[in-house]
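Private note to self, pasted from the team thread so I don't lose it. Backbone tokens:
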């Protein structure tokens, strides 16, 4: 039974963080003959996992993956929306995707001084085709999610580093009356298109900063901007693209079985 429990932890930690399963095996081996085994093993796991995560950040660039900035220094143009993504090793992208994100953030800060562009899930540091659940396509470093930009509901003033959802996802924008809703009436059993009603109590009361979100979307699909940086496809819900007034042949609907994209922008670059 103990072996089965350890095996379950290895699988779960590997799926969540890629390297967590190896860290768990190491912690079990190190703490095997020590007293107070459970407490020691937990401490050893945290230490080993932290060391492996820091090591991954240094090694991954040699394999073509770059770690995105984890923290906002106050002067940053680009940072992860939450340190949680870095703790789970989900903040890695290919060099082309990294460069595209940096260029987008720089252009946003130039057009709207003080703007922070926040990134969400990228990929794991090692091994192409390793799944990044619950995503269907974040497995090669060439895909990255960008958080929307938000403002104060009373004044409309931009709120730096603020998102509706505490994790950047699942703070959905409501469609306008008569909007294009291609998935209306569907009830797929196997789907990632969750409404996450139970999660909404955790969300903040903010409004979409439409000028900034529109500008980011326009940059990503722009011929002499995002496309010149290698962007080949952008996902966002049709009702939101229409509401923001952005059209492009690389602006796509992800389909009715994939996650909703009216809480973030997904872009990808050519491999």
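Design output:
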């Amino acid at each position: 039974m103990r072996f089965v429990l350890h095996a379950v932890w290895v699988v779960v930690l590997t799926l969540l963080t890629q390297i967590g399963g190896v860290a768990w095996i190491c912690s079990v081996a190190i703490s095997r003959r020590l007293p107070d085994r459970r407490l020691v093993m937990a401490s050893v796991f945290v230490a080993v996992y932290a060391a492996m995560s820091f090591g991954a950040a240094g090694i991954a660039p040699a394999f073509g993956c770059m770690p995105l900035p984890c923290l906002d220094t106050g002067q940053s143009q680009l940072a992860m929306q939450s340190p949680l993504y870095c703790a789970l090793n989900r903040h890695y992208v290919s060099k082309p995707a990294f460069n595209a994100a940096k260029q987008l953030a720089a252009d946003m800060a130039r057009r709207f001084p003080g703007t922070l562009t926040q990134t969400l899930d990228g990929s794991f540091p090692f091994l192409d085709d390793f799944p990044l659940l619950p995503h269907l396509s974040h497995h090669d470093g060439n895909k990255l999610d960008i958080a929307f930009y938000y403002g104060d509901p009373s004044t409309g003033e931009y709120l730096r580093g603020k998102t509706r959802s505490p994790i950047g996802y699942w703070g959905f924008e409501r469609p306008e009356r008569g909007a294009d809703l291609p998935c209306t009436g569907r009830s797929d059993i196997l789907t990632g298109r969750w409404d996450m009603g139970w999660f909404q109590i955790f969300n903040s009361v903010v409004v979409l900063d439409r000028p900034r979100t529109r500008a980011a979307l326009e940059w990503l699909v722009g011929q002499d901007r995002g496309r010149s940086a290698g962007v080949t496809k952008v996902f966002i819900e049709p009702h939101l693209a229409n509401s923001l007034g952005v059209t492009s042949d690389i602006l796509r609907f992800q389909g009715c079985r994939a996650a909703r994209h009216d809480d973030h922008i997904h872009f990808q670059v050519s491999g």
